[in-house]
Design a protein that fits this description.
This protein is an alpha/beta fold and about 290 residues long. About 40% of the residues lie in helices and about 15% in strands. It folds into 2 domains: about 90 residues, Leucine Dehydrogenase, chain A, domain 1 (Rossmann fold), CATH 3.40.50; about 130 residues, 3-Layer(aba) Sandwich (Rossmann fold). The chain contains 10 helices and 11 strands. The N and C termini lie far apart (about 45 Å). Bound molecules: guanine.
């Protein structure tokens, strides 16, 4: 069994980006700059955004974290996004999701300039992805593709089963895996909460991507021997024995599935780190495409 180690694969991606950035600076160019907007104090979002900012620093990017309280008016948030859209020195903009209920997520996403939409959530980027045109790919599916590439996981003609149909992970993942790409050339089945016979479909998979947010959902009896298993789950589960009072659990029952899979991602230390790698690559791409 191969452990698909996000620390190793993301370090390789980050090293390349760091070298590219160092070369830019050496040639007198400015550094790529990511602006991250965080609304409220959701613990998981705080952790993710802090990690994104820290990783920007590690590769030599500039980053700006903009914080708003939970009760911010939607209009104020949209005005801030417009300001960043018009700031020539900002390459990438991300608004951490989820947002408070009174703010329309779709409106926020549509307000981000497609050219700075390093999350790849804007309908223009989502549409380009569907048509196989160059676009920003949502960071988690992008990171998974980078992981498959790093470990040279052969996908041509394989059957991939994606569990979860979110715009952030499942749906773009299903599109990437069903494309004609070196590491995405599968027959894809997209399953979700209303899929009958889910276990039976999973047992037919050569590659499983579990992105439904239910800790330990994928059990060994749902996995074909020698399958490749990608775990996107990152649920906080209460654990009084843990230092922080919780543990991060994936969607896959790791120990039992690891004993039959040919390759598997751990949680933590798997896909989460690749998401950051995908975001950094998108930010570098936005910088390269910008006129400034
Ligand atoms: N919330 C969960 N995943 C993501 C992500 O990839 N980007 C943003 N902006 N918010 C998220």
């Amino acid at each position: 069994m191969i452990l698909l180690d996000g620390r190793i694969a993301s370090a390789a991606v980050k090293a390349t980006i760091q070298e590219q950035t160092a070369l830019l600076v050496k040639n007198g160019k400015r550094r790529p700059h990511l602006a991250a907007i965080l609304v409220g104090h959701n613990g998981a979002s705080e952790t993710y955004v802090a990690s994104k900012v820290k990783n920007c620093e590690e590769v030599g990017f500039l980053s700006t974290l903009i914080r708003f309280e939970n009760d911010i008016a939607e209009k104020t948030l949209l005005e801030k996004i417009e300001e960043l859209n018009n700031d020539a020195l900002i390459d990438g903009i991300l608004v951490q999701l989820p947002l408070p209920k009174h703010i329309r997520e779709a409106k926020v996403i549509e307000t981000i300039s497609p050219a700075k939409d390093v999350d790849g959530f804007h309908p223009i980027n989502a549409g380009k992805l569907v048509q196989g045109l160059p676009s920003f790919i949502p960071a988690t599916p992008y990171g998974i593709m980078l992981m498959l590439e790093h470990y040279n996981i052969y996908t041509k003609g394989k059957h991939a089963v994606v569990i979860g149909r979110s715009n952030i992970v499942g749906r773009p993942m299903s599109i990437l895996l069903s494309s004609n790409l070196p590491y995405g050339n599968c027959t894809v089945t997209l399953c979700h909460s209303h899929t009958p016979n889910l276990a039976e479909i999973c047992r037919q998979a050569d590659i499983i991507v579990a992105a439904l947010g239910r800790p330990g959902f994928v059990k060994a009896d749902m996995v074909k021997p020698e399958a490749v298993v990608i775990d996107v789950g990152i649920t906080r589960v209460d654990d009084p024995t843990a230092k922080k009072g919780f543990r991060i659990k994936g969607d896959v029952a790791f120990d039992e599935v690891a004993s039959i899979a040919s390759a598997i991602t751990p949680v933590p230390g798997g896909v989460g780190l690749m998401t950051i790698a995908g975001l950094l690559k998108n930010t570098m791409q936005a910088y390269i495409s910008s006129k400034w």
